[in-house]
Amino acid sequence: MGERLTSAGGLAGHLDGFVRAVREAGIPVGISQAVDAAEILTVVDLLDREQLRHGLAAVLLQRAAQRPTYDVLFDLWWPLSDRPATGPDDDEPADGAPSTLDVPDDAALAELMRAELLRRLQDGDPEELRRFARDAVDQLGQGQPTPSGQSYFSYRVLRALSPDTLVAQLLAGLLGDADRGGLAEQVARQTVRDRLAAFKAAVEAEVRRRTAAEKGRDRVVKNAVRPLADQVDFLRAQAADLAELRRAVTPLARRLAVRLSARRRMGREGRVDFRKTVRASLATGGVPVVTHHRPRKVHKPELVVLCDVSGSVAGFSHFTLMLTQALREHFTGVRAFAFVDSTDEVTRFFRPGADVADAIARIGREAQVVAFDGHSDYGNAFDVFADRWASAIGPKTSLLVLGDGRTNYRQPGVPVLAGLVSKARSAHWLNPEPRRLWGSGDSAADRYGEVIDMVECRNAAQLTDFVTTL
């Protein structure tokens, strides 16, 4: 591989560094998993890079969503060998491989390599594709040298080779004389997409490897490793991140439901029944050896959710409304209210089995959440809620407020919120902004925090922590 690991101690140290990098990227790796990873090195062929990749992944990863992050780190710590694969005659290029000798200009070189890329894609050998990607980065990916060394860019390679324009030729090669439009074409198209994606990923991995060699692995890790889905800020989440978050919502909702309703299950820990305890003590000479308790009255768990759906927290509101939908599966009484500068009940949009995306779209079209200019007005939103639905909150109700607390310099309505909190059994506010920004600019989060438990909740990991410690 790219680094020389000449002794067992060097290999163990290298593996330890890799495991630490995986852990620092947000993938939980315990001591037992690290021991298993060391055991993997004794049972796989260390010269077979893909066997090593899959072997370590099997013991270090728990979820499929962790795989992209792991692959980036693996390519940096266990890079493809710098030495190219050679055939029987080491002095001659592989059959059909482009030679850089006698190439008149960059355009001609790119055209030769493009033809070679087509051949490699048709063959579909993953290892050969990775080696070709290495050569392509070496020939076409160099930018202007900098004082810190040579720079390489994947976009230069992909622009020169334009692999996406080879789809028609690849399909023709895979299908041959087969009829178009049937299952065979669908399979061929998927094969082409997979091979093109593998080549692009190999180019990016090679650029990262060369950058790590020039500027240091730690610097590349900081910029190249994307946060895991549960660490992505809700306010910056992309469509792919939201898809992963949807899969995390149901177990989180289940745990949140259990935590919020735990106080209703008192069992033997209710109030002491003084009369029964004294009567029982007569059998032990007046000493209350055994205490008796009154079972507390069991009530149905109730939850009221107040969610800011303004544009400034669109990503967060999308996720929290998904959470609201999931909570309905575990609470018998969940009422959801959305607001921008006015408030409306949106429980009707979250019936069991309803599509969350459709529900959110209907809220935008049908819910009366905008009364004036469509900018957040927490004070008026709280006033409308208190006027129309004050009875929704009572001694059996848990109140959950979701929003960034930015009031656009309007009245925050702290006294109204304090009144609602005082009526509820428990109340919490989940804020998607970093704690350091609370109270800055038009944020009234610090003032709200004086009357309600204000919790920083920027990502799914923090939401998990909130649920765990609730």
TrEMBL record:
InterPro entries: UCP010256 (IPR011195), Uncharacterised_CoxE (IPR008912), vWFA_dom_sf (IPR036465). It holds the Pfam family VWA_CoxE. Residues 84-103 are annotated as: Disordered. It comes from the Bacteria. This is VWA domain-containing protein. It comes from Blastococcus saxobsidens. The lineage of its organism: Bacteria, Bacillati, Actinomycetota, Actinomycetes, Geodermatophilales.
